[in-house]
Amino acid sequence: VFTNIEGFSKHGKYVGNGNADGTFVFTGFRPAWLMVKNTSGTGGWEIHDNRRLGFNTSDETLDANTNAAEATGNDLDFVANGFKVRNTYGTSNTSGSTYVYLAFAEQPFKYANAR
Questions:
Q1: Which pLDDT belongs to residue 114?
Q2: What is the pTM of this model?
Q3: Which residue from 29, 26, 77 is spatially nearest to 50, judged by alpha carbons?
Q4: Tens-binned pLDDT, residue by residue, of the chain (115 aa)
Q5: Is the peptide bond before 98 cis (omega within 30 degrees of 0)?
Q6: Is the C or the N end of the chain the one with fewer CB within 10 Å?
Q7: How far does Cα 75 stand from its chain's mean position?
């Protein structure tokens, strides 16, 4: 359903390392919105964005598959060219678990057209 569009959106997978200095995932842009799902185990569809309090480290999340209130403590950083996991939770960084993600860019353009 989704396709990667350079500078706008990226989906893929990564493997968690179970360390608070977690996995870095290259997207080619600074994400504004990110959804992550553990495919190796249980856990919800965790959503991070750059509009919630706690942004960088983004620790306030929503679960797309539940009616739970906003959660805290699932730290990760949005960086200029991707995201860096900063937690050891099963929803985004269990050692050896595979995670899928979908990210959309903060500045969704491939080339700047300066005048």
A1: 53
A2: 0.87
A3: 77
A4: 788 999 999 999 999 999 988 999 999 999 999 999 999 877 789 999 988 766 676 668 888 888 887 877 678 899 999 999 998 888 889 999 999 999 999 987 766 555 5
A5: no
A6: C
A7: 10
| Cβ count near 34 (within 10 Å) | 24
Distance CA 14, CA 70 (A): 24
**Dihedral-angle region of residue 18 (phi above 0 means left; psi in -120 to 50 means alpha; beta otherwise):** left
Q: Give Cα 7 distance to the centre of its chain.
A: 16
| Residue in the structure block whose two tokens are 């990110």 | 34
